[in-house]
Design brief:
The protein is α/β, with parallel strands linked by helices and about 500 residues long. The protein has two domains: about 260 residues, Aldehyde Dehydrogenase, Chain A, domain 1 (3-Layer(aba) Sandwich), CATH 3.40.605; about 190 residues, 3-Layer(aba) Sandwich (Aldehyde Dehydrogenase, Chain A, domain 2), CATH 3.40.309. It is built from 15 helices and 22 strands. A seven-stranded mixed sheet has the order 14-15-16-13-12-18-19, sandwiched between helices. Strands 9-8-7-10-11-21 form a six-stranded mixed sheet, sandwiched between helices. α7 links the parallel β8 and β9. Bound molecules: 1,4-dihydronicotinamide adenine dinucleotide (NAI) and magnesium ion. Magnesium ion (MG) binds next to loops.
Length: about 500
């Protein structure tokens, strides 16, 4: 008879969960991925490839082509050709059918896409399965619906497509960001050259396979891989009519400079340093869950992460105690395990950046608290981290860390917290926790942030516009507003 295993206790003396790994045997990855140009996978002209790895195991997953200027030119030519010869002329309701089909195919292959997203990006399978992939499909569904209704979206304004859209996306939501960019571009009659981030190209390349299978006319969507140089070549190509970028504020500024003086349209979705504000009349347990969701569940790899916590003084002790207890129960580890709350940091470079800020926070004099959790031996992982008694002048309060690091401040009055919340270079999002609707409305009018959640955090919907103030960028994605950057009137 098999020996019955004793249940394990974790470091805190709680029952530990048995591993529940998602199966990855059904995943097929090529050894090498070429560039998706003109409806075909083609070799890069210089024949250069780079490795893409899993940040949780540090193992190589595949080799991916590195596109240079010549390849970018071929992709833009293919997109221009498809725009002039096919896509621009196609009746809008026919265009909608293709977008709808892509949405359906993403749904059909959702399990495969979720697993690859977690392998290549390091995010927990729960997140890629329940958030990234369904939302990506929903974006295509939503914009399929608008394609033949643009006249109703903008009555009397005769909306016209722009031409070729160059789109550059980051590594934190690889498939979802591709959907945010491609779906509205197609619905408005534009063609696309898209570049995923160098650390997370695989789901975009799977999307290229889906697009090829969907029968979308050749060249309407081109997906090419490479580093920042490839991105810059897309931005600077003279036949690109619109640039859509999501990523760091530094690169966003560079892009804006480089297209100054051209008639290219541009949207930038850049960094953030969101204030999550908890009033003393808030439901505390719910708020703790929202705080954890806002900064730890996604490794803090979210531009709208609630990375600054403001707690009203009267409840500070209780809330911090509960937050610490909750942090101790977080499971950090294998992204493929369905129990995992906090997955791998996306790259060694990003982990180094986060660790640098943790050191900085200590040196600046804030009080550190880290989850008492076990850590994997391999891969890029970071313990959920709190900095208590942070002050407005600290760099950990002012600068985007993009990791599971939360800076905590207390406040007494509404005026004080509004001033502190607004007093940073960013303005992407914020959260407000209170029992009173009037307080919420007061706050939403005064906080300089593009998105404000009330008594919840990090909730997304394709029908709702998203975008920033100040150094968080400009232009909106999602909703009716998300059509506008792809149209001229
Ligand atoms: P990044 O801004 O360098 O990369 C984003 C995308 O831009 C990638 O596809 C990259 O290849 C491309 N790119 C890089 N240089 C370019 C250039 N000169 N012209 C055109 N495209 C270019 O971001 P990185 O280096 O991966 O991360 C650095 C920091 O940026 C993070 O620590 C985080 O603070 C922030 N970030 C913000 C994101 C957001 O969603 N707002 C997403 C990713 C990073
Ligand atoms: Mg960079």
């Amino acid at each position: 008879m098999a020996k019955k295993e004793e249940p394990k206790l974790d470091l805190m003396g709680n029952w530990a969960y048995a591993p529940a790994p998602e199966d990855s045997k059904h995943i097929h990855l090529n050894k090498k991925y070429d560039l998706f140009i003109g409806g075909k996978f083609v070799k890069p002209t210089k024949g250069k490839y780079f490795d893409t790895i899993s940040p949780s195991t540090e193992q190589k997953l595949a080799e991916v082509a590195e596109a240079d200027e010549k390849d970018v030119d071929l992709a833009v030519k293919a997109a221009r050709n498809a725009y002039d010869k096919t896509w621009k002329k196609m009746p809008a309701k026919e265009r909608a059918k293709y977008i709808f089909r892509i949405a359906r195919m993403i749904q059909e292959r959702s399990r495969e896409l979720a697993v690859i997203e977690s392998m290549n990006g390091g995010k927990p399978i729960r997140e890629s399965r329940d958030i990234d992939v369904p939302l990506a499909a929903n974006h295509f569904f939503y914009y399929a619906g608008w394609a033949d209704k643009l006249e109703y979206a903008f009555p009397g304004r005769n909306p016209q497509s722009l031409g070729v859209a160059g789109q550059i996306i980051p590594w934190n939501f690889p498939l979802l960001m591709a959907a945010w960019k491609i779906a509205p571009a197609l619905a408005t009659g534009n063609t696309v050259v898209l570049k995923p981030a160098e650390t997370t190209p695989l789901t975009a390349l799977k999307l290229a396979e889906i697009i090829q299978e969907s029968g979308l006319p050749d060249g309407v969507v081109n997906i090419i891989t490479g580093f920042g140089k490839t991105g810059a070549a897309i931005v600077n190509h003279p036949n690109v009519n619109k640039v859509a970028f999501t990523g760091s504020t530094d690169v966003g500024k560079l892009i804006q400079k480089s297209i100054a003086g051209t008639d290219k349209k541009i949207t930038l979705e850049l960094g953030g340093k969101a204030a999550n504000i908890v009033f003393d009349d808030a439901p505390i347990d719910q708020a703790v869950e929202g705080i954890v969701n806002g900064i730890f569940f996604n490794q803090g790899h979210v531009c709208c992460a609630g990375s600054r916590l403001f707690v009203q003084e009267g409840i500070a002790d209780e809330l911090i105690r509960k937050l610490k207890d909750r942090m101790d129960t977080l499971i950090v580890g294998d992204p493929m395990d369905k129990n995992t709350d906090v997955g791998a940091i996306n790259s060694k470079e990003q982990l180094d950046k986060i660790n640098h800020y943790i050191k900085l926070g200590n040196n600046e004099g804030a009080e550190i608290f880290q989850s008492n959790c076990s850590m994997p031996k391999k891969g890029y992982f970071c313990k959920p981290t709190l900095f208590l008694h942070a002050s407005q002048s600290h760099r950990i309060v002012q600068e985007e860390i993009f990791g599971p690091v939360l800076a905590v401040q207390t406040f007494r009055t509404i005026e004080e917290v509004i001033e502190k919340a607004n007093n940073i270079p960013y303005g992407l999002s914020a959260g407000v926790w209170t029992d009173k609707g009037s307080k919420i409305f007061n706050m939403t009018g005064k906080l300089r942030a593009g998105v404000i959640w009330a008594n919840t955090y990090n909730k997304f919907d394709p029908t709702s516009p998203f975008g920033g103030y100040k150094e968080s960028g400009f232009g909106r994605e999602g909703g009716l507003h998300g059509l506008m950057p792809y149209l001229k009137f």
